[in-house]
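Note to self: keep these together.
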Amino acid sequence: MIQSSTCAGIAASQSCDMSTFVTVEQLYSKNPDLKKDDVQIIQGWLSKQNHLPKIDEFEIILFLHSCYYKIEPTKICIDSFYTVRSMCPEFFTNRDPKTNPTETLNLLLYAPLPKLTPEGYKVIFAKLIDPNPDNYSFAGQVKAFDMATMLMLHQEGTHKGIVVVTDMKDVTFSHFTKLGVMHIKKFFYYLQDAMPVRIKGLHFLCIPSFMDKIVNLIKPFMKGELFQVLYLHTDKLDTLYKFVPKECLPKDYGGDMDTIENLIKIQNKNILENAEYFIEEEKQVADESKRTGSPKSEGDVFGVEGSFKKLAID
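Structure:
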């Protein structure tokens, strides 16, 4: 069994359930467009990138798939992924659910749902667990989303696309005021340019009266193709069902999947059982001191923070 490097290094641990992780062989079987030659090209390129951590065949396949098997975009995506993770400790450190349950378990639910859409897209359902805005942070939200998504990729492998459905029923204006412009910019850069996923839809349910302010805040950081798949829905779910059939959704939303209460229990158990995976994953970052040529700075990647002060909340 060929395993992802983030868990292969901790085989002796009881806190990483590798029996649930897919294998490289399964990824080749699942993706007929995946070519061994392309993987080897990326491996050859990686051997010359001293600033990047050790990246195994499994992870290379995730990046190739997310970039539709195009070599040069895959190289850029890999470099961006590990560079961003080194520059955003607020998102990518302190991810042990046993020592930081507040952000990793108790803040938000991000639950991959079992049933795919008719297009073959994976649905990730999101909802606040703790509605108290005093306990909310956008960095914690990004952390919860990334942990759930990256674990899902290792447990299920590639998907044709991912659709994120977020219930905003308990989101208040106090939550909104805690959104930081640079955090939002960093997240959307990561989501669009670095994360090894194909985003096919962002759906927001039960939108609040100030949703226009949220959209105005995030729109400058969204590429046109991502903004085109941003959909807003009221508490009437018929418009959502056109994209995500109700049988794909939790019972609480008229669907056939488990209830939100049970999904929280299932997902938290899965996160806890793979605590060592997240601890090891924190170590997988770029080392700019070893980059050939000039090292990259946050300004090189994300721009200057002062440039975005004009986007202050009205």
